[in-house]
Amino acid sequence: MTVTVQQMLAAAEAVVPRIAPDEAKGLIGRPDVVFLDVREPNEVAVSGKVPGALAIPRGLVEFRADPASALHDANFDRAKTIIAYCASGGRSALVLKTLHDMGYENVRNLGGFKGWVDAGGEVEKA
């Protein structure tokens, strides 16, 4: 059985709730919340990121999130809320679905970085 990207996105969106930029703004700096930018390093370098966000490309997130991995990042904690974003919301949805499958229950998709900027969200240069 083959699965299309659209089917994968639909499955992710069925599990991962969205969070509006205005709601997310109030969560910056909270110790129980991790903002996660899953864009490629060159994308982050050009546009910046949400202040304090971890910038980890989509292809490395699972390795950073798994406590058994040699690449584990201690910022990943299953008790925290993970709010991810990318350029348009697709990569972040897929990453969050994977994190959910890995036991991270509190995940939210901020969607695209442009939506954050358009809503007046702060930007930190990378």
TrEMBL record:
Q: Which SMART domains match?
A: RHOD
Q: Name one Pfam family in it.
A: Rhodanese
Q: Which InterPro entries match?
A: Rhodanese-like_dom, Rhodanese-like_dom_sf
Domain Rhodanese: where? 29-125
Q: Which GO terms describe its molecular function?
A: thiosulfate-cyanide sulfurtransferase activity
| Domain of life of the native organism | Bacteria
PANTHER family xrefs: THIOSULFATE SULFURTRANSFERASE RDL2, MITOCHONDRIAL-RELATED, THIOSULFATE SULFURTRANSFERASE_RHODANESE-LIKE DOMAIN-CONTAINING PROTEIN 3
Please state what the protein is called. Answer: Rhodanese-like domain-containing protein
What is the organism of origin for this protein?
Answer: Neoroseomonas eburnea
